[in-house]
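Repro case for the chain-ordering regression, as requested:
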Amino acid sequence: MSDFNLAELLPFYLDETDENIAALNDALLRLEQDPEDAKALAEAFRMFHSIKGASVVMGFDAVNRLTHVLESLFDQLRTKKRVLDRPVLDVTFRCLDELRDYHRELRSENRSDRDLAGLTRDVEAAMATPSTASPPPPTAAPAPTPEVAPGSTTTPIATAAILVEDDVATIRIVVEFEPNLQLVDMKARLVAERLAGKARIARSDPPLEKLDEIESLAAFTIWLVGAGDLDELRALADVDGVVRVSVEALDEAATAVEPEVAEAVPVVEPEPEVALKPDMEPEPPAPAPAAPAPPAVKRAKVVETIRVDSDRLDNLMNLAGELVINKARFIDVAKGLDEVLRGSDARGLAVETEERLDTIMRGLDQVVGTAGFKAGDGVVDRWAGHVRRLRDDFHAIRGELDRLRMGRERLKSLGDAIHSLGRVADGLQKGVLETRMVPIGPLFERFRRVIRDLSLASGKEVVLRIEGEKTELDKRMIDELSDPLIHMVRNSVDHGLEPPDVREAAGKPRAGTVSLQASHRGNSVVITVGDDGRGIDCERIRRKIVAKGLVARDEAEAMTDRELTPYIWHPGLSTAETVTEISGRGVGMDIVKDRIDNLSGGVDVRSTPGQGTTFIIRLPLTLAIMSSLLVRIYDEVYALPLDHIDEIVEIRGDRIATVQGRPTIEIRGRFLALATLGDLFRWGGGAHPSASAAPRPGDRSASFHVVIVQNGETTIGLVVDQLIGMQEVVLKSLEKNYQPVRGLSGASILGDGRVSLILDVDALVDAASRRRDLP
Amino acid sequence: MKRLLVVDDALFMRRLIGGVARDAGWEVVGEAGDGSEAVALYPELKPDLVTMDLVMPNMGGLEALRLIRELDPEAKVVVITAVDQKQSVLDAIRLGALDFVVKPFDRARVTALLRKVAVTP
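-- result from build under test --
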């Protein structure tokens, strides 16, 4: 034991215990519905047992004693020696909360002074009382919807029926797609269409007609009839976005083993622990085909995971980012060299000149050789000597030029080397990125407990709906999201949902619904928190902002609901009539927004009176890398996140109109406010020195590059001086390296080593639409 | 060296795709700003690949794709599309598009595509 450094083990202990506690919560919630759920009882017993075992190694005696009695309690329950009744359930929930807080303190302060002895005695007391005869009735309110069974994996559908008609198929092709590939259903269709030119398609999985209903697809399997060149088929199936194609000629034997393998797949125990670890496959291949196809086999191996300190991953991520920057630098250097060494006709000229000099020399020699010429005529001799030297010099120059040409050819192989370096760098970066991606499911699952507690505390009936729990995002983001989400969910239950009687009177179901959804959209993750409650009371916001002196009365009177709603993000503005235990009062929503801004994301709110409120959070896939458009403004290079760019237009000055005193352009019938960086930023307290030299939107003869950017709600046109191109940039925090600047989300190092500032489009749009200056 | 015809109404996109193609060792033999220009240029240039934007003034990408495939049933055309143009993508696939790329894309996407196209039978 003394060889062990316990401090090093602590993070592992804490992570595992957290996971166990989360899974226990989940098991208890299931037991609350069905106290005789044998699987949940067994799980709970096993998890208390693991916490007990781990805590004794770590020397946390209080935890050990508490989990020991809980283990004994659940041993009695699972062996049916007693029945799980309400008092036991309640004390167990209390234990979980206490254990969770204990470990949270342990994590933040390395110690916890929480006294678990009282609880331990409570559990012992509960065990000493004879159990009630009948189990408690399931509580009505916090009914978890069955849509998402915790830790569920997709169970393959029965395949026997299909196999019967499968006897004619002679070739099977499995195509694996990149994770989160856009329009992946169309890619599958494309594969089928390309293959259809060569062979008849017997069937596919998923079937072609079902493709429309599928949003994400990890693999697509297609069975062909006929003979064909397998390599040709492989090339045809290998469309853009495909990471792997396996082609297999089917024979009797292969068909025979299929059902067996298919049956083996669902055996993979959906362990709760597994669900918490990065699953290498973001989406399961919908119904697993009756095939020993790579995706099916891979699923069975998911269990092999390894815990890595997240700092190490951050470090790797940084290095991979640097490598990508270096690659860009290499490309720059090679391009520069290429320009310098570009093939010219210099060598041809040299050869020609050399030949001409030869001719002249021969001519001179002839002159010398003719009769009547006096040998030793100094002038001719001297000229002949000059020409000979010239010719020899040119010969040397030609040698140099030959070497230059060789250099040029070497440069080409340098280009090739850079190209493969680039491929490796990109692959490495992508790989490291993927290691950081984890599904959002476990975070969402935690809300079952939150909803249960909120429901009990508020007396409202609440149903939680979870969708898109397989959506993956950066682990760090998941950690940061927890608090804002809890706040929004609380807000929904407390302020959004009406009491059951009020709902019934309004013709709504008694139980309100809170939904958590996640999905990928392009390079972003969109998370929504919605409720079907009363919606935001805009009149109340109007009164509040006038009362607080934020907006003049007449101005407030003229504001639309759409304009009023964003005030919920304003610090110190809460529309709740009374302070409740749950949501508190007016602190929070502004912090929620700050937190999400810090993750380079954005949050929007949509609300319909009487129908509910939805918060829409948009986050980048990762915090580390961003696809961006590089532009030049006032001689400096800025990066604009590609996700926020709608389009790029070039317009002439005479197409800029002035609407309400602001430059505006019309793009396909839509009017957009036009902004320049000079309008939005101040440099050292004044205008940028180059800003006055740049053409102003008033200049009718000039033409402007305008990048149309949006923050989800509002769209504006940003005038830039020059478009440079798209580039992946590695985000470096300004906050860490300098200080936070409003309007800038960070900085990045470009290929040539210069620093480019990354514009925060949300803040720009915000500032431009409110005509407010950034610093 | 493989030869490419780039069709897009936006100069910026033409530059972007052209640049990536050149870096990947392709020769950009022509650029067209709309579908009709593309159809006119195709028989003259006989490129190994056409990249075709879908939404363009005068003649759109789908019509141009159809006409080019009529001129040359072996023509290889990759369609450039936005994510919300699913129906057009489906039409393009039926018209024999070799592949499609969803905007916005990064350079690596185009590079990878060109590499695959080069070995497609």
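Ordering looks correct now. The beta strands of chain B are 3-7, 27-32, 49-53, 77-82, 99-103.
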